[in-house]
TrEMBL record:
Organism field: Caballeronia choica
Pfam families: Se-cys_synth_N, SelA
Designated name of the protein: L-seryl-tRNA(Sec) selenium transferase
GO BP field: conversion of seryl-tRNAsec to selenocys-tRNAsec; selenocysteine incorporation
Residue ranges occupied by any L-seryl-tRNA selenium transferase N-terminal domain in the UniProt entry: 2-40
Length: 466
């Protein structure tokens, strides 16, 4: 067996000095030991190369291993899937105001729970609840980690050991782990299902209300739609019944928009304000779906119910950190000037991007892409459909533009297309598209002009390497 050089000798070699300076001796030494251990293991299996023990090569391998280890596991990607609020790709992108605000609270102390007026202890919700009330028309508000937490907290605080009445048509599952019946039992509430999958009437709720009823609940169907012979009870009818029977109504809006999206030609969604005006006593919704902010769950509604929710021990466990509050406040403030919203709120800007804009982007990036992927493929600029995502308005699709990549030979070739998809996914800043019908589709909706140069530069670097 070849002689493995001494660890000490390699560590003190000239080539190692810059690595020790950059990563520290501990990491550099550990990386070298791993390298030599691997070599010994390979040698025993008869697979090791003696040249690999060359001092310069060892140092180079240690350097490469350290670079790889230091690379962030959470990385930015190009979202060309066409889904704007892609849960797996981090949902809403935040505007600069929010980023600046987060940087501030990350690097400086802040009045998170300190009342600057009195100099005494404050409540972190106070920083933001007035703004939420102003934008939703609610009496009171509180914020937790996400909307699933908001629903769990509402049920735990108001319906533990009691019954909650929900229509069978609204017992939804949202992305695997969040199912209304499961959340209900976790919160210690008893689910009382009424109606049928396709039709639920006011009298179904009426007949189910009893001594043990704590809450009537409506849930936004988010990621599914039923059509045909259907009937759901409108919120105002349900609220009238609830008031007469002295039971509160909670609505889980899911995405929960603060403005009427129809004014920008997007599909209409009931706003949070309309839901409050429609008679909901409590409304829960996400911060990082249509709202366009950070991951958070907002609970708004009647002051007495919000006070009860805030006193529940789970509120402490589910509370948001300062980063969330710092990001949420500037996003909410944008809603005070609806005339600028389309331009300033990143989510809305992406959802309303003009078709010409996306087509121009597609045409500008196509040559670099073609050069990088090679002659085997053909690229065409095509109309396609984007989705809002995150369960918002599942049946509505947004006309969009993008690139469709196929085999130049015109042959059906799932394998080559899948290989290409993988190559793009393994770029330093991965490019995520979607494969369907023997084509890789790259939707340009989320490739904004500010990112175009980076997208092209990465492809040119790849082309040059090969
Ligand atoms: C998305 C959604 C949730 C979960 O919200 P998160 O913010 O992802 O926790 C709950 N209910 C409905 C109706 C939803 O659409």
């Amino acid at each position: 067996m070849a002689r493995v050089p001494s660890v000490e000798r390699v560590m003190t070699s000239a080539g190692m000095a810059p690595l020790v300076a950059q990563y520290g001796r501990t990491q550099a030494l550990a990386a070298l030991r791993r390298m030599l251990d691997d070599w010994r293991r390979d040698a025993q299996a008869g697979r090791a190369l003696v040249e690999a023990l060359d001092e310069a090569r060892l140092v180079q391998s240690v350097g490469a291993a350290l670079v790889e280890r230091e690379r962030s596991r959470i990385r930015s990607v190009f979202n060309l899937t066409g889904t704007v609020l892609h849960t797996n790709l981090g949902r809403a992108l935040l505007p600069d105001e929010a980023v600046q605000s987060v940087v501030e609270v990350l690097t400086r102390p802040a009045n998170l729970e300190f009342d600057l007026a009195s100099g005494s202890r404050g409540d972190r919700d106070d920083l933001i609840d007035d703004l939420i009330c102003e934008l939703t028309g609610a009496e009171a508000a509180t914020v937790v980690n996400n909307n699933a937490a908001a629903v769990l907290l509402v049920l735990s605080a108001l319906a533990s050991k009691k019954e909650v009445i929900v229509s069978r048509g609204e017992l939804v599952e949202i992305g695997g782990a969040f199912r209304i019946p499961d959340i209900m039992s976790r919160a210690g509430a008893r689910l009382r299902e009424v109606g049928t999958t396709n039709r639920t009437h006011l009298k179904d709720y009426d007949e189910a209300i009893g001594e043990r009823t704590a809450l009537l609940m409506k849930v936004h169907c988010s990621n599914y739609a039923i059509s045909g012979f259907t009937k759901e009870v409108a919120l105002n009818e349900l609220a009238t019944l609830a008031k007469a029977r002295r039971v509160p109504v909670a609505v889980d809006l899911g995405s929960g928009t603060l403005v009427d999206l129809a004014q920008w030609g997007l599909p209409r969604e009931t706003t949070v304000r309309e839901t409050i005006e429609g008679g909901a006593d409590l409304v829960t919704f996400s911060g990082d779906k249509l709202l366009g902010g950070p991951q958070a769950g907002l609970i708004v509604g009647r002051a007495d119910l919000i006070a009860k929710i805030k006193k529940h021990p789970l509120k402490r466990a589910l509370r948001v950190g300062k980063l969330t509050l710092a990001a949420l406040e500037p996003v909410l403030r944008l809603y005070r000037a609806p005339e600028f919203l389309r331009e300033r709120l990143t989510t809305l800007r992406l959802l309303t991007r003009p078709a010409d804009d996306m087509r121009n982007t597609a045409e500008r990036v196509a040559p670099a892409l073609l050069h990088a992927i090679g002659e085997e493929f053909s690229i065409t600029v095509e109309p396609m459909f984007s989705q809002i995502g995150s369960g918002a308005l599942p049946v509505d699709v947004l006309p969009s533009y993008g690139l469709a990549i196929r085999l130049a030979s015109g042959k059906r070739a799932g394998r080559q297309i899948n290989r290409l998809e993988k190559i793009l996914r393994e770029l330093p800043r991965p490019v995520i598209g979607r494969v369907a019908d023997d084509a890789l589709r790259l939707d340009m909706r989320c490739l904004e002009p500010a990112d175009e140069a980076a997208f092209i530069a990465q492809l040119q670097a790849k082309g040059a390497r090969e």
